[in-house]
Amino acid sequence: MSEFPHKPTRRTVLKTGVAGVAAGAATVAAPMFFMRNAWAQEFCNMPTGGSVTLGFNVPQTGAYADEGADELRAYQLAVKHLNGEGDGGMINTMKPTMLKGNGVLGKKVEFVTGDTQTKSDAARASAKRMIEKDGAIMITGGSSSGVAIAVQSLCQDTGVIFMAGLTHSNDTTGKDKRRYGFRHFFNAYMSGLALGPVLESAMGKDRRAYHLTADYTWGWTQEESIKNTTEGLGWETVEAVRTPLGAGDFSQYLTPVLNSGADVLILNHYGKDMVNSLTQAVQFGMRDKQVNGKQFEVVVPLYSRLMAQGAGENIKGILGTTNWHWSLQDDGSKAFVKSFGQEYGFPPSQAAQTCYTQTLLYANACETAGTFAPPAVIGALEGFEFDGMGNGQTLYRAADHQCFKKVLVVAGNENPTSQFDLLQVVEEVPREQVTYNPSIFGGELGSADAKAC
Amino acid sequence: MFGISKINDIMLLVAFAAIILAGPIILEPIGASYPDLLQKFAIFGIFAIGFNILFGLTGYLSFGHAAFLGVGSYAAVWSFKLLSMNAIPAIAIAVVLSGLFALAIGYVSLRRAGIYFSILTLAFAQMSYNLAYSVLTPITNGETGLRVLRTDPRYLDVMFGADVGAAQPTTNFFGIEMTGWPGFYFCGIVLIAAFAFSIVIFRSPFGMTLRAIKSNQNRMGYTGFNSRPYLMSAFIISGMYAGLAGSLLAVTDPLAGAERMQWTASGEVVLMTILGGAGTLLGPVLGAGIIKYFENIFSAFNESVLNSLFEFMPEDVRHVVVEVAGLFVGDGWHLTLGVLFMIVVIFLPGGLMEGAMRVLRIKHSPKVTNIGKSPQRDIVGEGAIEENLDDRVRTAPARSKPTG
Amino acid sequence: MDAILLQILNGLDKGGAYALIALGLTLVFGTLGVVNFAHGAIFMLGAFCAVSINALLKLEQVVLDPTQTTAWGTPLEIRTPYIESWLGEWGTLLIQYSVPISILFAIPVMLLIGLVMERGLIQFFYKRPHADQILVTFGLAIILQEIIKEIFGANPIPQSAPPLVAGSVSITETIVYPYWRIVYLFFSLTLISGVFAFLRFTTFGMVVRAGMQDRETVGLLGINIERRFTIVFGVATVVAGLAGVMYTPILPPDYHMGMDFLVLSFVVVVVGGMGSLGGAVSAGFLLGILQSFASMNEVNSILPGIDQIIIYLVAVVILLVRPRGLMGRKGVMED
């Protein structure tokens, strides 16, 4: 530090340093007394009053803001139903259920909201606020896997249960699984398993696939899962190209597809990337092309209605998978669509359904356990087998906290009757077909011990 | 020197320290008194103080400072993974690495000035972000973010027999866990030290040189003065501050994600500094606090919160008020930020510190006409001579001539 | 060979978009000396002109059909655009051609937005340093996009190209390219030459160019250069807005698209040289083509990740080799 030739400056540092430490020592102890219930808690944020607080952590700004808004609608509806307001929705169809519509364990359900911004840092900050300031006993939400994994590990550390929202990466319940984290949504591996037979019957066994993959963790796991499936069918993978996240214009990645000899394009993109790449692929004439004597096909392994809306006409006839769709005709789906539609005037998205279900499942587990204590609630959720929530017979597998239920293979609707009628269910792939061995992804759940916070 | 009283500086520092350490009590009424937010206040305060050393003193507007924050975080998490869960080696490694990174980027970027400098720093930061998100995933763990795992080696911890066993390891400072309130006090004390160091820099001949470079770099050049080493030092110090802040983020929450390096994150620190008052000592800390408060508290206001807030109003009026207020909070908190920011830039180029000065009339201070042109104007400790000088230079016709 | 030709085509197309956005940015800078960070937001507003026109044309008459019910038990709404019920097939045609129609609409709207912005805000920042200009326009950009988000939501809203130029065309046996992208390329070339011709061959343009060289002398000659510069700002806004309108069929617009293009267009302007029109255009095409080539598998397998950083890398190299960008003038933006 030759820039500081004058001695007094160094003395200033010393003096100020001493002053700082002294002031620090004087005030360090004071605020400890203000911590709420710091000594009385058996576990983090044990509800003591007449109410219990849930934390809804969804993207409110950024690319997934609309998805987050739909999730929030579903959460508010779930809270209403749990508190016995409205028509009760899926509480009436869920079986087995302990829910009585009088709150949870007799306590009124309240909630706080936060903005994840679809960024791990912001999501964790928001979750911490809910835990540290608002006393939330459970955190739920999210619209991307990076966020879900980040918040899930935070919840494991603080001893608060996390019910994941929309997250599709294998890692959430694979190598990054946590004892305190639960996922109802399906994953990329299940997408692959479900798509396989449908792709085979629609496109045959002799195909050459070209992957465009969003260059980050989720994209890679999906590419790998789909590749496994298609190569198992006997398809050849011509090329798998990584595209930068948020590339906007994909033309430079699309033109090589046309002359590569591939006859299927698989777009491992989500959100805006998917909307753009699909729109542009269709513009490049890929839907009306003949290659190797076969019709050129595009596949979008993960679909959502909001994305379908963004891509408009271009999705017609394009295959993909989804967790749930509002046109399903089972009792649970019908009840949910009815109460959601009456409340908001349009049908719920798959994100809304998974979030609504997760909230009810958590509440039910508390009722079953007879306490809010996380170890008991986790015990009630692990291995829980239920029905009537829109996805048929469903199992919360204890080994990795992943729900196993049927997966929908859908296609873009050729003749939509309304602006919401964009996807058409092609096949409901049964649960047995998408169940896999939990050990293939590794990872460990960790301990269920309660923690004081 | 220049009429600055050391006593004043020490008083300023003591007052600052007292406010920071009493933060949990002071901020209780506005709902900001919980560990995570206070940690963020302190950490981003450090980040902004460091940015201010570069921008406030030299006028070089870096649009890539988030890269150093990210490097600091990654370095700290790797230290937790490989060496020890103790905060000290993590911070040391992070500061050194981000300093080296700043040296490399600064060496190239400081060859240019003005907007060319801004774009160069932006380009480097964006390259770091893009690579960290994708091809560098083995080092950064990409989208998911780099985290501490139970199975990491942690050679130093093993050497000293501090094995965590089956539990998930937590960061510590010689046994004190660095989460919750202890984490805040740790960050707070580092913030006070960082603030003290920035006072020293502001008052030192080095700081004066930097300001001279800002007011007229050409003239400095004509007098045979080589400004590069000084700019370089300021850039590196500023980068090390960012690395320090990044490592503290990892200390209080051992996770490092690539989006910390995105250009919007660099933009955020610029906003913090300007909002509080570039070139002032306290301003950046204030600005960091306000932006983090908005991000965490305003974004959490939903309709039911608003309804209970305006409960005293009659039903119909409340409905309208909630409707209007709803545009600015919750999912609309960016809008509030944008409006506040424009107001500050247009009417208060000296930032909120200038506003405070004017309202409190503590000292006579000339009107600030440009961002970053604000001379020293803190509650105590003022460089009066330099201020007037600066004012005269600015009103000279040659300086107001627009470029282009 | 075809692969390379196709990438050149991609590059030109991309470059056309970059050049159009950068052109307005550098024009404003060259004349007014203002660094406009809201330029991306203007591009976005242009795109939303197309969205608004489309929505306006599609304004629907809602008839409740009590014989049918939705899945949630309310009567089914049958929606027909008014314009279809009034004009029949002509109405359908109008909706299909909403993007070209939007251009006619966007010109006056964007001009108005530009003039209001310049008179209402930018003019007060002429004498303030570039940092202030960057920051105030950045704040404005945030506000503009939040307003759009409030009205249209965050989800992208697809716009389709008119049927006449939808789909793709085979240029040779193996080179297939979307019609609309070719239209876009020609559109950008036309617009760029239009701006150049405007500055080159009109008296107005001559005065503006003189003002760019030395505004004080032009002012001393008794010419109200300020007013002309205001109009130039309006022109720049229109150019960015039209670029946005025409881009909607390629990229379904959302409120954030301006920010996505902002950083990029700044890099283009700086590489071209601040204030240089020719520089911005050539840098736009250069970066577009380089980006396309960097994305080729052959290149990416040698240098993984190069397509992610190529733009910035080129910017760094050019700024170090040519301090003022490709065609920048001395002394601009260096203080």
Strand content of chain C: 5-15%
The assigned structural class of chain C equals mainly alpha
User: Which two protein chains have the largest interface (Cβ within 8 Å of the partner's Cβ), and how many residues from each?
Assistant: A-B, 66 and 70 residues
How are helices and strands ordered from N to C of chain C?
HHEEHHHHEEHHHHHHHH
CATH topology of the largest domain in chain A: Rossmann fold
Tell me the total number of β-strands of chain A.
17
Outline of chain A: globular
**Helix segment count of chain C?**
14
Q: What does the model show?
A:
The complex is a heterotrimer of chains A (453), B (404) and C (335). By secondary structure, chain A is α/β, with parallel strands linked by helices. Chain A folds into two domains: 51-186 and 326-405, Rossmann fold (3-Layer(aba) Sandwich); 189-322, Response regulator (Rossmann fold, 3-Layer(aba) Sandwich), CATH 3.40.50.2300. Chain A is 38% helix and 18% strand. Chain A has a seven-stranded mixed beta sheet, with helices on both faces. Chain A has a five-stranded parallel beta sheet with strand order 2-1-3-4-5, with helices on both faces. Chain A has a three-stranded antiparallel beta sheet with strand order 13-14-15. Chain A is globular, with a radius of gyration of 25 Å. The model of chain A is unreliable at 1-40 (pLDDT under 50). Chain B is mostly helical and 404 residues long. Chain B has a domain at 6-262: ABC transporter involved in vitamin B12 uptake, BtuC. Chain B has a two-stranded antiparallel sheet. Residues 374-404 of chain B have low confidence and may be disordered. Chain C is mainly alpha-helical. Chain C has one domain. In chain C, helix 2 (39-57) packs across helix 5, helix 2 packs parallel to helix 6 (130-152) and helix 12 (277-294) runs antiparallel to helix 14 (306-321). The longest helix of chain C is centred in the N-terminal third of the chain and has 31 residues, at 2-32. Chain C is globular, with a radius of gyration of 22 Å. The interface between A and B is large, with 66 and 70 residues.
